[in-house]
Amino acid sequence: MEWSEFGDWAHRVADWSQAYRETVGDRPVRAQVRPGEVLGALPAAPPESGEPMDRIFEDFEQVIMPGITHWQHPRFFAYFNANAAPPSVLAEFLVSAIAPNCMIWQTSPAGTELETRVMDWLRQAVALPEEFSGVIQDSASTATLAAVLTMRERALEFTGNSEGLFGRPPLRIYCSAEVHTSIDRAAWISGIGAQNLVRVPIKGPSRGMDPDALREMIAQDRAAGLQPAGVILCVGATGVGATDPVTEIMAIARAEGLYTHVDAAWSGSAMICPEFRPMWAGIEQADSVVFNPHKWLGANFDCSAHFVRAPEDLVRTLAIRPEYLKTHGADGIINYSEWSVPLGRRFRALKLWFLIRSYGLDGLREILRNHVRWAVALHDRLAQEPDIEIVTPPMWSLFSFRYVPDGAADLDALNQRMVDAINDDGRIYLTQTRVDDQLVIRFQAGSFGTTEDDVMMTLDVIREIAHALSNG
User: Fold this and answer.
1) How many Cβ atoms are within 10 Å of 106's Cβ, its own excluded?
2) Which residues of 182-220 are buried (b: 16+ CB within 10 A; e: fewer)?
3) CA-to-CA distance for 264 and 270, rounded, in angstroms?
4) I need a labelling partner for 295 at 20 to 30 A (CA). Which of 78, 108, 353, 375 fits?
């Protein structure tokens, strides 16, 4: 394709995109293909000669689209939504056209300086103190890895990168069993190791870390000659929204001299609403915090907001400065590649700028508040159903339940059958998780396109599927 043809195709793609988003609710939410079906429809060898764009686009519609699960569907109630609001999509279109690599200041000064500004907007929006500085990472997994590497280096007085971990007492990191698996991977990749990721027992309806147990486990490790390095807290964990008692855990960590990282990947966006902030009271004591605007704030994936109290520690952990990455004659600049694991960096700040300016904080707050209100209303109605047991209460817009009809023998198998039947039906999309080793069904409202009617349809679908299972 030549650039002279691009405009016509760009208009066609824009028209297709608008039509898709306006009618996505008419499609089954989850892809209805069998494993290998898309692969089997794709040629095994690449073409030797170029093909016309008409044919490529036709195959996109006929081969690719049937295998797409529609994350922008208004009844996508699984996982956490990966929203892509219209202004964010437009910004990504422009980023794709400009195609800059924002690895250091001189490779795109506007990319660096816009990132500095919009991250401070986000800091203000969630009421983090002024001493926090932000960087946009690709995902919370990367932000958590950067945090674990930093806590490792601080514990080793910044000698781990140069000398390695051999011949030292094992470092210990503390978290609950409710944390995301990205914490496990960070322990692997950082060299700390899975066996040194200490799982602290949980207690209470919020399923948070038991502070007394944490304090005792730290003391036991010190007595055994091990070296505590940090604590990773969760606020709104993926399974059922588990949330640690932030204030109490922070007090223990500060007394022990441990680095603290808070994973609020999903729920952190809710903190633009002042009434939700008590759930992370004490956050101002953290060393680092991460949340994902690409989940609940409408930014296209990928866009993860990583805030740090001492950016100099992050830079000291990650920065490498060969001559070709130096900007001479420009003092006081920020090179965000020194705050990230990858060197190359996409221009992610533009979509946040478009998004926040387009909706304003009040517009974004209204969307999130509706999601929470509708989810709570659905929870209350489900709680009245005779064969439904609420397992965990609403944490923002997330709760879990089980189908428990009288006389059912294997409830785990039955609930898995229910989830599968619901998703095969196609009107809504739910996922399962485990709570205290029981399989439960989770519901989470977070799509920018959802309405109250979409949320309440869940009750109708659950009733119909339950009736079919009981008669099947």
Assistant:
1) 14
2) bbeebbeebebeeebbbebebeeebbbbbbebbbebbee
3) 10
4) 108
Q: Assign 326 to helix, strand or coil.
A: coil
| CA 150/CA 316 separation, integer angstroms | 8
| Cα–Cα distance, 147 to 208 (Å, whole number) | 21
3-class SS of residue 83: coil
Name residue, tokens 């002042």. 274
Asked if 241 and 396 touch (Cβ cutoff 8 Å), the reply is yes
State the sign of the Cα–Cα–Cα–Cα dihedral 248, 254, 257, 258: positive
Residue whose tokens read 């209460």: 393
Q: Give the number of C-alpha atoms closer than 13 A to the C-alpha of residue 203, restricted to the C-beta side.
A: 7
Domains detected in the chain:
3-83 (1.20.1340.10), 101-346 (3.40.640.10)
Q: Enter the tokens of residue 450.
A: 């959802």
Tokens (6 digits) for 100 = 């800059």
What is the length of the chain? Answer: 472
Residue appearing with tokens 């485990």? 434
Claim: this prediction has a pTM higher than 0.90: yes
φ and ψ at residue 37, rounded to 5 degrees: -65, -45
* Token pair of 451 as six digits: 């309405």
Distances (CA, A) of 162 to 157, 159, 203, 463: 11, 5, 40, 60
Give me the average pLDDT of each 10-residue run along the chain (472 residues).
Answer: 88 94 93 92 92 93 94 93 93 91 86 94 97 94 94 94 90 93 91 94 93 97 96 94 96 96 96 96 96 94 95 90 59 84 90 96 97 97 94 96 90 94 94 94 95 96 90 72
Backbone angles phi, psi at 305, to 5 degrees: -90, 115
Write the CB contacts of 301 (distance below 8 Å, at least 6 apart in sequence).
82, 84, 294
Can you tell me which residue has the tokens 């209805």? 32
